Every structure is written in structure tokens, then in C-alpha cells.
Amino acid sequence: MKSLPLALALFATLVAGCSKKGPTDADVLSGSRKILLSSCRQSGAKLPGITPAQLDTFCGCTTEKVIGIMGVDGLRGLATRGAPTEDVNQKLRQAGEECVEQIR
């Protein structure tokens, strides 16, 4: 999904803009989940031939896989390190492919 880099950039901005103390792990996970789901749903709504139920399944799957792959530290690091490494990007692409299989 092309929206993943945008979602990650938005999340990095969210993390960077938090108070001096920074967000808790729960805040990071909750914020990530909201941003990733919203971004996925907005992008997916434009795709022909995908039902709302399929979109919900796909977006839920990819969101949880991204969070699982990145982890809290990886999500926090987006604010300081920027985009994920190529290795992480490959894992994210694979996760997307696995989630597509769930809606076929």
C-alpha cells in the first residue's frame, strides 16, 4: 500500500509533537493503530472491487502486522530515524501480501 509511508510519516509527526516526557507505550500503540487503520481505509475505499467487509479485514490485518513487525521501539524511532530499513520494508510488503490472501 502506498499509504503506508504516509501513515508512518504522520505517526512520526505525532510522536515528535508529544510532550517532553513522551508518549507511553500504550499511547504509541493506540496512536499507531488509529493512524494506520484510517490511512488504509481511506486508500482502500478508492479501490474497485473490494467490499467494505474485505477492506476492514485487510486493514485490520495489515495494521496489526505492521505494529507487530515494527514494535513500540520501531514506531517511536520513526520520529528520529525516519523511514524503516529495507529489511523492515520487505517484511511489511510480505505482511501486506499475507493480508491480501485473507480476503481472496
Characterise this structure.
23% of the residues are buried. The radius of gyration is 14 Å and the shape is globular. The protein has one domain (3-102). The longest helix has 30 residues, at 52-81. The chain has helices at residues 3-16, 25-44, 52-81, 86-102. The protein has four helices and no strands. With 104 residues, it is mainly α. It starts with a helix and ends with a helix.
CA distance, first residue to last residue: 17 Å
Overall tally of structural domains: 1
Helical content class:
over 70%
In round numbers, the mean pLDDT is 86
H/I helix tally: 4
Structural class per helix/strand content? mainly alpha
Number of strands: 0
Spell the H/E element sequence: HHHH
* Low-confidence runs of at least 5 consecutive residues: none
Largest sheet: none
Rg estimate, integer Å: 14 Å
Strand percent estimate: under 5%
